[in-house]
Design a protein that fits this description.
Order of helices and strands: HHEEEHEEHHHEEE
CATH topology: Pnp Oxidase, Chain A
Structural class: alpha+beta
Bound molecules: flavin mononucleotide
Strand content: 25-35%
Strand order of the largest sheet: 1-2-3-6-5-4
Oligomer: single chain
Helix content: 25-40%
Radius of gyration: 20 Å
Number of domains: 1
Largest sheet: 6 strands, antiparallel, barrel
Distance between the termini: 30 Å
Number of strands: 8
CATH superfamily: Electron Transport, Fmn-binding Protein, Chain A
CATH class: Mainly Beta
Shape: globular
Length: about 220
């Protein structure tokens, strides 16, 4: 049943844009910005949603979706608690990967690199810019713990909403703003005939080196 349903689904049906792999910037961050703008203009839903992959202490991979908060010369930024599986995994092993997929354009971007924390000032600014509900849930500081009952969550949230009413500038101590400095970035443009175009950037001793990859 599932097999037939899956076979009936289309993938990379197009129309899809072309990708001129000769006309690209030296720095993959510039190409990412340009592709990101294309995704926004094409109406891709939540183009800033990305998969963050990490590994645990046994070397077993883990992955979840997060929201991209910023991209600058340092890399790709995201915000989360430093507790819970991803926080612990990144503290043990700062090597991570980010993956974007923009369906309507048939484009995938894969980033591999090292994650580090932004300074406290930037972290606080990010936290205070979050809507009150998002700040209250972050202040509960229990992401990914076992939830005993919905009431437990409601009570904890009400407590934090009250703390925020008393102190609107409160920042969750376990909140983190993280930056992924890229070592490798791959741009993948899907093709309806499966002649996908792949451009791989690697950061070497003298700067960014690019090569094309087989589809
Ligand atoms: C669209 C979307 C956006 C999300 N954005 C974030 C985010 O920015 N930060 C975050 O901590 N979790 C975010 N999550 C939840 C994570 O996927 C994940 O459930 C949570 O961070 C716990 O991860 P962990 O158990 O691996 O630590 C988002 C989930 C989705 C589906």
């Amino acid at each position: 049943m599932m097999k037939d349903e899956l076979r009936a689904l289309k993938s990379l049906a197009g129309p899809l844009p072309t990708f001129d792999m000769e006309e690209v910037p030296d720095d993959p961050r510039l190409l990412f910005s340009s592709w990101f703008r294309d995704a926004v203009q094409a109406g891709v839903e939540e183009p800033h949603a990305m998969v963050l992959s990490t590994v645990d202490e046994q070397g077993a991979p883990d992955a979840r979706i997060l929201i991209l908060k910023h991209l600058d010369h340092r890399g790709w930024h995201f915000a989360s608690t430093d507790q819970g599986p991803k926080g612990r995994q990144m503290a043990l092993n700062p090597q991570v990967a980010l993956t974007f997929y923009w369906t309507r354009l048939g484009r995938q971007v894969r980033i591999r690199g090292m994650v580090r924390r932004a300074d406290m000032h930037e972290r606080d600014a990010d936290f205070l810019a979050r809507p009150p509900g998002a700040r209250a849930i972050a202040l509960t500081a229990r992401q990914s713990e076992r939830l005993a009952s919905p009431r437990e969550l409601e009570e904890a949230l009400e407590l934090q909403r009250e703390r925020l009413r008393q102190g609107p500038d409160l920042v969750a101590p376990h909140w983190g703003l993280f930056i992924v400095a890229p070592r490798e970035v791959e741009f993948w443009q899907g093709d309806t005939e499966r002649r996908h175009r792949r451009l791989h950037y690697r950061h070497g001793a003298t700067g960014w080196v690019r090569e094309k990859l087989w589809p």
